[in-house]
Amino acid sequence: MQPCFEVPSGQDGIGPMLPDAPVALLRLDQARRIVAVNRAALDLLGSEPALINAGCERLWGMPPEALGDAEGVWCAAGDDPACRVRHQRDRDGDGWLLSLPHPETAQLLRDPPPSAPAPLDAASAQASDDAALLAHVGALLGGCDLDLVLPEQQRDSAIGRRLGAGFGNLAEAIRQAVALSVQIAQAVPQVVEENGELARQAQAQADALQSVLEATQRLLQGLQAVGGDLDAVKGVAASADESAREGGQAARALAEAMQEVERRATRAHDVIEVIDAVAFQTNILSINASIEAARAGPAGRGFAVVANEIRSLADRAGTAARDVRGIIGETVQALGDGAASARRTEQVLDGIGVLLARAGSAMESVAGRVAGQGEEILAIDRAVERAAELGRSNLEHAAHVAERSQALGEAAGTLADCVGLFRLPDAPLQQPRHARVHALATATAGRIGALFEDALAQRRITPDALFSQEYRQIPGIDPPKYRTPFDALCDELLPPLQEPLAAAEDWIVFAICANPDGYVPTHNLRFSQPMTGDRARDLVGNRTKRIFGDRVGRSVGAHTDPYRLQVYRRDTGQIMFDLSVPVYVGGEHWGGLRVGYTLE
């Protein structure tokens, strides 16, 4: 059976299809034209393309005014039960949903078994009753009416029990479908709203990421500019360092030249000293010569003149030597000062060279860090770009989710419209077995809660242990089984209450407790047989201390409804009902008591 929210195109150009169902379904628009059908309708009315867009007169001459009411039943001329149309407005008021008897039901209603002569015995009377019952059931099914009420004598017959079980199973399955469609329809607006908020947040995140991306790009450009400036400064520093080294070398060369001049000046001083000594000795000799010339009288007069000239020359030589000595002294002093200045200049230039080298090293380090930060920012830029891409992708997904949520809401409405064609019993507990199980489960759940309260009062267990959700897997068992802080207490307290409930009726299959996680600490004895090592056998024979995570198993201990009735098909093919009621301990929800049973 196709899900109601899948509306595939029909074969052979028929057009949109409604979901498969036990009856023929048609959808009409405001103009009373057929716009969609299901497979059963095609089987009943024929699959010619002219069926789509045909008027309601195509249905055994049904007049348009017959669809004036919100809900009703129309029969063809002659009151043929096989030509009966049940109709109701769809949920939007834009058209109608119609149901017709299934072809097999229609054939049964058209060709009822020939009436038998007056019963000759009980067997023929039973056959007549069964035929009447089948005709009644066919009429109900033709009108999508699942509220089967049988007389007491027919209710206990074999066919009555089977029909009661079948109608009960179908009614509750459809009731669950209705409840599910309502839940979906109620949840869709919230999903749409939350998806819209998610889209808004994703858009804000995308905008913020775009701003961050632009900022990181500007920062990266700034760092690249700083790196270029640092390279230029490094070049200037390198040039200055080279100039400082050259200046230091020049200062050292100047100092050495001055030292050489100083050495030569010292040698010149020594020569001047010799000249001064010679002049002094010459002056002494000239004095002695003058004395000797005076002694010689007139004969020595010429020699005296020479002696005087020599003395005069010696005086001038001595004076010149003394002047040169002073000049050389001043020069030597100046050379010493210049050499000292050159040495200081050399030291300063050496210091500048050291500082420039350190500055160059520091700038090299800064340039390296700037380059590293540039790489990190580039990585951040790529990460932000990736995040921005994800944000844009999330926006696209949010748009798709919004579209699908809208489609899901429409499909839920279609499902509600489809199942709304069926007339269901007013309350599930009108069914005697449902009512019986509800009464037994409610009373037993109250006693279980009281036993747990007594155990807490007697300090046999703590509240934390009783409500614990800590599970320790038992090794070597598949599927997994678990120990909990409360399962030993349940093994002691629950069997005296669960076993009588499970044995109260022969159609009750099990009666067990489960916590909100679906964990069953203590199963019925018939499902707690010793482990054999045969997985297939143990899967059925030992079901205790397992977590049941299926649709029903997850909900029985988690809900707080007064009761919850669910129907499902076991892996054996058997239709099972599961009625669960909550278990409270001191006013706090502990879990639930679930009872599994059949209507057959």
Strand content: 5-15%
What is the assigned CATH homologous superfamily of the largest domain? Answer: Methyl-accepting chemotaxis protein
Q: Give the biggest sheet.
A: 5 strands, antiparallel
Residue windows where pLDDT falls under 50 for at least 5 positions: 1-14
What does the average pLDDT come to?
Answer: 79
Might you state the CATH topology name of the largest domain?
Helix Hairpins
H/E element sequence = EEHEEEHHHHHHHEEHHEEHEHEEE
How many strands? 13
From the spread of the alpha carbons, the general shape counts as elongated
CATH class of the largest domain: Mainly Alpha
Task: Write up this protein.
The chain is of the alpha+beta class and 600 residues long. It has 3 domains: 11-109, 2-Layer Sandwich (Beta-Lactamase), CATH 3.30.450; 194-417, Helix Hairpins; 428-597, PAS domain (Beta-Lactamase). Helices cover 59% and strands 11% of the residues. The protein contains 12 helices and 13 strands. It has helices spanning 39-45, 103-110, 122-142, 152-155, 158-296, 301-419, 432-457, 463-466, 487-493, 495-502, 535-541, 551-556, and strands spanning 24-28, 34-37, 71-75, 84-89, 96-100, 472-473, 482-483, 508-514, 519-520, 546-547, 564-569, 575-585, 588-597. The strands form 4 sheets. A 5-stranded antiparallel beta sheet has the order 2-1-5-4-3. The longest helix has 139 residues, at 158-296. The protein is elongated and about 210 Å long.
